[in-house]
Design goal:
Elements: E1 6-20, E2 23-38, H1 43-62, H2 72-89, E3 94-103, E4 106-113, H3 114-120, H4 122-127, H5 130-139, H6 159-169, H7 183-195, E5 205-208, E6 215-220, E7 231-235, E8 243-250, E9 255-261, E10 274-281, H8 283-290, E11 300-307, E12 313-331, H9 337-362, H10 368-378, E13 388-400, E14 402-406, H11 416-459, H12 463-466, H13 469-486, H14 495-546, H15 552-578, H16 589-607, H17 627-636, H18 641-651, H19 655-669
Parallel strand pairs: 2-5
Antiparallel strand pairs: 1-2, 3-4, 6-7, 6-9, 8-11, 9-10, 10-14, 11-12, 12-13
Family: Belongs to the heat shock protein 70 (TC 1.A.33) family. HSP110/SSE subfamily.
InterPro entries: ATPase_NBD, Heat_shock_70_CS, HSP70_C_sf, HSP70_peptide-bd_sf, Hsp_70_fam
Pfam family, one: HSP70
């Protein structure tokens, strides 16, 4: 027994031998024989009786015709506490109930005895035995044949329910080997692991389940009569899962297939028994195509169904079956003696021909006579023709039919109009949710602003320097006024109202907090500015020594801006000292930082000016040089010549004359140039 339903299942336990890695092992298994249930009986049914009892008691305490059932928030509080009270009654004979501020700031306190609770649910105890009685009735078993009765579900802990079961079963104690709350979840996990290929269990467990509902197939179409042949029980209750079914119908036109539950037993929450519908087409075309042939039997359609492990029935495929009878010529099997003697020479000739052909292949086609002989033998016609006879043969054609699934019942596709209406409704709900979140955020912001501001005004001494006593007193009164509204009329206010109240407080408090911020921020900004102006003088002096290429007008501009900033700061600081701390500040930290940043940008732009590149003059060429002779003499010198050229070029401007004189000397000493490896 769970929260909302009660089940009674009959399970048969057994074992079978199986081979694993060459060894015979015993595998435990269980098979579900039958299941019966009451979809409207559970722990919540008992709780609802207690809720009604305590609601009547609270209405009597309040009086004045108040009915707490009309207030959902109050009923939610009551139901939550009733559930706890019911759990206490399972272990105690008396249980209290206490709900603070149930309605209109009224607390509710009461007690109830287990005897009173059992009296309120008197009709439920006999009703809880109905599923168990139905299982025994349909299975044909007696109570003596039951080995154990396990209790599963939190509601089975109720003492009165256990007493009724013991009385019906004739047992002193019930079986409680499993955890009532976790058994279903653990069993489902074990079943999933047993079916999975990716999870290997240390010990295999056989599970055989059955369909909890009877499933019906119904055919509808032109020329189909509504009789037992068009409506049949396809899956009886407790049919083994998974399984496959087959149905055949003699018909020549397209039709529709409907799958439904048996009307006497529907799943919880299902109003229509039909859960699937298919359109089967292609049968009319196949019938028209083969109708002119010699049909040996009427055209029929075969329907193939499958029932999955989850108990889901579906139409997998459909075929049109056409059987045709035709006269065909086949060789005559029973031959006479005369025919046998006549055909024997042909067999001999064929053998000789084969041997002759093989011999000709071995001689690599060098002897043409042998080939001619083999050809003459193979081309020799048979003396007699084979005898055939006509025989009636039956041929079967299977034509796949097209299946189109039509969604029916709760899964039917929605119309465009309904979809548009649903989208509009969702958008409205989203707007309401956004507005609700915004309202809660603004309410929290307003509440936080009130508490933090009052705390600062009452505890921080610096506010006395920037505000008058009347100003602080007036501000605190406004905060108290809004706070009182927040907890009275503002309990159900809108986001707009919260925003207006917050803006009105900030309009009064922002100037005060601005002066409070400047009280500490302005001196810090002044100190940093003066420090930077002093460092700037050292930067300018470093430019004169390390970066003499910087334009003098740009450097002078930076120095002038620094002097202007210093003068402006002195002037504004003097004005601020003369001004009252209760008035708007003459000098703000934001203005100071803005001017300092502008000066820093100018300093950075001047500092980024690069050093100009020096001008390089090209060396003048000697008029006495001769291009061709010098090149030849340079190529004919040894590997040390490039170093000599470099040294003489760096040290003296007469390098070219030196190279020419050395080259001419080498030419005189060696009239033929030496051959060197390429550098």
């Amino acid at each position: 027994m769970g929260a909302s339903s009660t089940y009674a299942a009959l399970v048969y336990f057994s074992a079978y031998n199986a081979k694993e890695f060459g060894k015979t092992v015993s595998v435990n298994q269980f098979q579900v024989k039958d299941v019966r249930w009451d979809p409207e009986l559970g722990g919540q049914t008992m709780e609802s009786r207690l809720v009604e009892y305590f609601a009547d008691e609270f209405n009597k305490q309040v009086g004045n015709g108040v009915d707490v059932r009309k207030f959902p928030k109050a009923m939610a509080k009551l139901k939550k506490q009733v559930k706890r009270t019911k759990e206490i009654l399972s272990a105690n004979t008396v249980a209290p109930i206490s709900v603070e501020s149930l309605y209109d700031d009224r607390d509710f306190r009461s007690t109830i005895t287990r005897e009173k609770f059992e009296e309120l649910c008197a009709d439920l105890w006999d009703r809880s035995l109905v599923p168990l009685k139905e299982v025994l009735k349909h299975s044909g078993l007696d109570l003596d044949e039951l080995y154990a009765v396990e209790l599963i579900g939190g509601a089975t802990r109720v003492p009165k329910l256990q007493a009724k079961l013991q009385e019906f079963l004739g047992k002193n104690e019930l079986d409680k080997h499993l955890d009532a709350d976790e058994a279903v979840v653990l069993g489902s996990s074990l079943h999933a692991a047993n079916l999975s290929d990716g999870i290997k269990l240390n010990r295999k467990l056989g599970m055989v389940d059955g369909s909890s509902y009877g499933l019906v197939v119904e055919l509808d179409g032109p020329d189909l009569l509504k009789d037992e042949s068009t409506r049949q029980v396809l899956v009886p209750r407790m049919r083994k899962l998974p399984s496959k079914m087959f149905r055949s119908i003699v018909h020549t036109k397209d039709f529709e297939v409907s799958l439904s539950y048996e009307p006497d037993l529907l799943p919880p929450g299902v109003t229509s028994p039909v859960f699937a519908q298919y359109s089967v087409s292609g049968l009319a075309d196949a019938s028209e195509k083969y109708s002119s042939r010699n049909l040996s039997s009427p055209i029929k359609a075969n329907l193939h169904f499958s029932l999955s492990r989850s108990g889901i029935l579906s139409l997998d495929r459909a075929d049109a079956v056409i059987e045709i009878s035709e006269w065909v010529e086949v060789p005559k099997k029973n031959l006479t003696v005369e025919n046998t003697t006549t055909t024997s020479p042909n067999i001999t000739l064929e053998t000789d021909t084969k041997n002759t052909t093989e011999e000709s292949d071995e001689k690599s086609n060098s002897d043409g006579v042998t080939n001619n002989i083999s050809i003459n033998v193979t081309e020799e016609p048979s003396t007699t023709e084979p005898i055939t006879e006509k025989k009636l043969k039956r041929r079967t054609f299977r034509v796949p039919l097209k299946i189109v699934e039509k969604t029916v019942g709760p899964g039917m596709p929605l119309s465009e109009e309904y979809l548009a209406q649903a989208k509009r409704k969702l958008e409205e709900l989203n707007k309401k949710d956004a507005e609700r979140r915004r309202t809660a955020e603004l309410k929290n912001t307003l509440e936080g602003y009130i508490y933090s501001t009052k705390e600062k005004l009452e505890t921080t001494e610096e506010f006395e320097k920037i505000t008058t006593d009347d100003e602080r007193k007036s501000f605190i009164e406004k905060l108290d006024e809004v706070q009182e509204w927040l907890y009275t009329d503002g309990e159900d206010a809108t986001a707009k109202e919260f925003q207006e109240r917050l803006d009105s407080l900030k309009a009064f408090g922002d100037p005060i907090f601005f002066r409070y911020k400047e009280l500490s921020a302005r001196p810090t900004a002044i100190e940093l500015t003066r420090k930077y102006v002093g460092e700037l003088q050292q930067i300018v002096q470093g430019w004169e020594t390390k970066k003499p290429w910087l334009p003098k007008d740009r450097v002078d501009e930076v120095v002038g801006d620094a002097d202007k900033l210093k003068s402006w700061l002195d002037e504004k600081e003097a004005e601020q000292k003369k001004a009252s701390g209760f008035s708007t500040p003459v000098l703000t930290s934001e203005e100071i930082y803005s001017k300092v940043l502008n000066l820093q940008d100018k300093v950075a732009s001047v500092n980024r000016i690069p050093k100009p590149k020096p001008k390089i003059e090209k060396p003048k060429k000697n008029k006495t040089e001769t291009g061709g002779d010098n090149t030849n003499s340079a190529d004919s010198t040894s590997g040390e010549t490039p170093e000599k050229v470099k040294q003489t070029t760096d040290s003296d401007g007469s390098a070219e004359e030196k190279i020419n004189s050395e080259g001419s000397a080498d030419e005189k000493a060696n009239p033929e140039p030496e051959v060197h490896d390429e550098l």
